[in-house]
Amino acid sequence: MAAAGLAAGAFAVGRATAAEGSESPDPTGSDDAFAFRGKHQAGITTPAQDRLHFAAFDLTAGSRAQLIALLKAWTEAADRMTRGLPAGEVGPTEGAVNLPPDDTGEAIGLPASGLTITFGLGPTLFRDARGRDRFGIADRQPEALRTLPHFPADMLDPRRSYGDLCVQACADDPQVAVHAIRNLARIGFGTVAVRWSQLGFGRTSTTSTSQSTPRNLFGFKDGTANVKAEETAAVEEHVWVGADDDPRAGWLAGGSYLVTRRMNMTIEVWDRQPLGEQEEFVGRTKDSGAPLSGGTEFSEPDFTMPGSAGPVIPKDAHVRVVHPDFHGGARMLRRGYNFVDGSDALGGLDAGLFFIAFVRDPDTHFIPIQNAMAKSDALMEYLKVTGSALFAVPPGARAGEYVGQALFET
Amino acid sequence: MRKPLAIALVAAVPLVAACTENTRGDDSGSGDARTVSVTSTDDACDLSAVDAPSGTLRFKVTNDGSQVTEFYLLGEDGLRIVGEVENIGPQLSRELVVNAPAGSYVTACKPGMKGDGIRADFTVSKSDEEPAVSADDQQLVGQALKNYQAYVQDQSDQLVAKTQQFVELYESGRDDEARALYPEARVHWERIETVAESFGDLDPMMDAREADLEEGQEWTGWHRIEKDLWPPATGYTPLTDQERATYAEDLMKNTETLDKRVQRLTYTVDQIANGSRGLLEEVATGKVTGEEEIWSHTDLWDFQANVDGARVAYEGVQPIVEQKDPELATTLTARFAALQKLLDAQRTDTGFVYYDDLSQDQVQQLSNAVNALSEPLANLTAAVLS
User: Where is the secretion signal located (chain B) (predicted)?
Assistant: First the structure.
């Protein structure tokens, strides 16, 4: 992970400079830039940016060679855009007038804005719905990379779920994140098509101890106990896939698994719950985020402390149901975002939490916890899961490599 | 809403005349003299004042001790609870808002929630914001509790009887008659749904929808049979006679267990008010969206039954609300009526229009009316307890 300060100088010859002197909107994004290449992909332990555009793609045609060519082209474009450069080598306004530009142009004048682009591979890339091994990689499918099981309260819309490939673009400026997905989708036409995409605003987690804890649309602080980048041992233990984790999928070492869940909140009903009950559902106070067993936001919850009727943190409180203490110590690196996709047919907000988590093994770090939540978490009364997906996130591409290279070439 | 898990074990508490935070209309000119800071430690209960003018009092309770504490405002006799706030964890603060007429009171912090607590006298002096007191509150509450208990017991009796008829029709293959009785039997479940659902073991066996199941969980109950009576056009294998008998007997057995438990229940006045709110939540999350009866599309029967139950609960406490917050009572009465008018427009000879025959516009109107009612209804409990 590149330090933000370093990048600001090193990448100064970027889009922002190129547009100097021309009329450009006030940059709302930051000058932060994070190196695309490295041991691990960026956008995981990177301090969570404020905005998200996440897209899932399906392969529309093609051969193994076409897939590899796409990953190469995406790697190059992502490397450029995360530096604040245009997606293509020519640029949005620098090319021949009789050709469409190789960058769409809406990011002219905007800095890198902390953009990270993270690629993932879905189970159907290895074996499609009919069981076909389209790209000769089925024997390398990671054991844990399967379609997630049905969980209670799942009302999945297939058009918001699954996918052969995914791209997570995060930035401090929504236009920069959208620009990234738009240009990558364009590069992919002929090989992939967008299956679904999701915009997110307002990070709902912190991935660094330097960040303050944000609030989700229930109005509560979220992600207090998240795995943070600074906890290097915890990141190794809970986020990165180890070299010996899966003998079939050595290529995934240094990578991770990415779970997405589009969790619609029944906002209007939630808003009518008394404050005391909201706090009991969550197990924390709404103002400071302290556990109901007392202290401050970062105090460890005391699940045995007695209250007036049963423990002071109720048995079905969210903080208890998903706590690592009850799941063999399993922790996730959550990186979710709030979303509001306008209103539904009845005038209610189509809104909620676009849950994103990076885990070392979904079989131990996600599925059991999601099952416990679906079964006994008081918050489930106010949640409907409308989208779901699981992807394997290859390790980072080093100089001269493309993302996922080890899958095809070792 | 929080499901009243321990409902069966809670003895009817006498009128608890307070609420914690968020009381309606509690900000009308309450000056600092009516705000009292309370610091509760393991061995002390320090109040910033020992008296206050009458009106809406705010006790800001901070727990500086090491264990969970509670704070009470008690009547002069030290027994009657005027207001209480529970479950204040160490280093946390909570607010007790209470309408207190002039008189002598007792305050108590209860660190560790044991014993009589650390008590002191507290005086409320007469002011021009003297709240109205009603001598017959207690009687109104007693009547409400009795009536609601009788209503729930009666609905449970009818549920047992109709379920018996229904499973007999279903088991003997008289499917047309079973289909006709299905929504009518479920009415009695839906009218007391918040009570029935409070039994966490029975509810998933009796009322789970297919989407509610987790992998490997067996699907039983009303909606399992619903799907068999209104099967999807393709890809469905009808249940055998033997399977029918199994599911039918299972549903009947669970209904009888439910009834036994329901007949023993007693209620508190806040449970009744919360039940009214909870039933409207059921409408908003399941019925108005057509998700409850995805095979039979008889959602409007359930809708009406939830509204029936909510209205009966409201009407039970209505005399109390009319005294405490007449404006709220007027609003709720009008909005129940407005919602009922929309439902009545969908009535047919045999019951209601099927959900999938409603236009988007009609669903929208129903949803708007549910929202219009639910928003003030969420203040009912606080008003009843104020």
Answer: 1-18
